[in-house]
């Protein structure tokens, strides 16, 4: 037997085994790192994400100072703060952001260019909310989202709902003085307009071709999680083409929604019930009606 040849062969075998062993160790390390990275990536998607997230859309002229009321208008911001305090008692967290859009002020009657600019503002808000919602739910896929808007902001929210009907993140919606309001929608309705059947047509619905709004009802499952607040003779959500919409009394009605009122407490209470573990109001509150699907 040639010992030199045997020795050389043994060294080659040992070298081959060592290389395979090192290769296996490196492969295992790389695989482990890959799984660790995947786990970390999955975890980071929800790192710091709250239980709930609020996206608020201001009404016409309410973003002249984008920092005031966190850029979402007084009634929407006040509702958020009240809900935030309630959730804190339950140990739940909620964050908020405003829809980043012009919220152009209502133009003078008869101003064609002014109304064109107003509708461009609604379109810009609709697009902005859609992008913000998609970005947030991608970042925090397990967080439930609440959408809320007043006046022009309610139109911005309403126009996004048709495309969000199947979203598992959307927990509840609040529409206050909605210019896109449909009297017999599937929504949970609140406000003095509920006392008169057939009332509560949004101003944009009366001119829906020009306003290019959607005249279809919301899907019933989504409508049951959407609170629509409107008072009689509000020129935005209870539009009357024969009335003088610029009358001070009409303006006072439209600007009179407040969480400090009994009505405000009613809609915040309904929101709390919609966001409870049961996910639905236990019973209709006073002044609340459910429209037929």
What is the domain total for the residues?
A: 2
- Helix share bin: 40-55%
Level-2 CATH architecture of the largest domain:
3-Layer(aba) Sandwich
Low-confidence stretches: 1-44, 282-287
Overall average residue pLDDT? 82
CATH fold naming of the largest domain: Rossmann fold
Strand proportion, as a percent range, falls in 5-15%
Strand order of the largest sheet: 2-1-3-4-6-5-7
The helix/strand order is HEHEHEHEEHHHEHHE
What is the name of the CATH superfamily of the largest domain? Answer: Alpha/Beta hydrolase fold, catalytic domain
Broad structural category: alpha/beta
Separation, N- and C-terminal Cα atoms: 95 Å
Tally the beta strands.
Answer: 7
Global shape: globular
Work out the helix count: 9
Main sheet characteristics: 7 strands, mixed
- Rg, nearest Å: 28 Å
Broad CATH class of the largest domain = Alpha Beta
Description:
The protein is an alpha/beta fold. The chain has two domains: 12-42; 50-290, Rossmann fold (3-Layer(aba) Sandwich), CATH 3.40.50. It is 45% helix and 12% strand. It contains nine helices and seven strands. It has helices at residues 3-46, 74-89, 112-139, 152-164, 203-206, 208-211, 220-223, 248-254, 262-274; strands spanning 52-57, 94-98, 144-150, 170-176, 188-190, 226-229, 288-290. The protein has a seven-stranded mixed beta sheet, with helices on both faces. Helix 2 links the parallel strand 1 (52-57) and strand 2. The chain is globular, with a radius of gyration of 28 Å. Mean pLDDT is 82; it is low at 1-44 and 282-287.
């Amino acid at each position: 037997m040639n010992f030199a040849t045997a020795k050389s062969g043994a060294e080659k075998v040992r070298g081959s085994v060592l290389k395979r062993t090192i290769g296996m160790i490196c492969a295992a390390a790389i695989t482990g790192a890959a799984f660790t990275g995947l786990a970390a990536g999955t975890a980071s998607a929800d790192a710091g994400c709250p239980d709930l997230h609020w996206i608020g859309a201001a009404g016409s002229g309410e973003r002249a100072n984008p920092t005031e009321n966190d850029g979402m208008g007084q009634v929407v911001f006040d509702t958020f703060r009240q809900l935030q305090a309630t959730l804190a008692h339950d140990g739940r967290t909620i964050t908020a952001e405003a829809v980043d859009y012009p919220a152009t002020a209502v133009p003078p009657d008869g101003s064609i260019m002014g109304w064109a600019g107003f509708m461009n503002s609604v379109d810009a808000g609709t697009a902005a909310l859609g992008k913000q919602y998609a970005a947030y739910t991608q970042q925090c896929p397990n967080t439930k989202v609440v959408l809320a808007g007043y006046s022009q902001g309610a139109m911005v929210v309403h126009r996004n709902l048709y495309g969000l009907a199947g979203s598992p993140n959307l927990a509840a919606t609040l529409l206050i003085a909605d210019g896109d309001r449909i009297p017999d929608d599937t929504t949970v309705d609140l406000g003095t307009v509920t006392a008169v059947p057939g009332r509560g047509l949004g101003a944009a619905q009366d001119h829906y071709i020009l306003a290019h709004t959607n005249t279809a009802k919301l899907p019933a499952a989504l409508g049951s999680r959407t609170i629509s607040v409107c008072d009689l003779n509000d020129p935005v959500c209870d539009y009357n083409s024969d009335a003088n919409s610029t009358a001070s009394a009409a303006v006072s009605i439209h600007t009179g929604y407040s969480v400090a009122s009994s009505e405000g407490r009613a809609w915040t209470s309904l929101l709390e019930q919609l966001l409870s573990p049961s996910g639905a109001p236990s019973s209709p509150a006073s002044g609340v009606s459910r429209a037929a699907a």
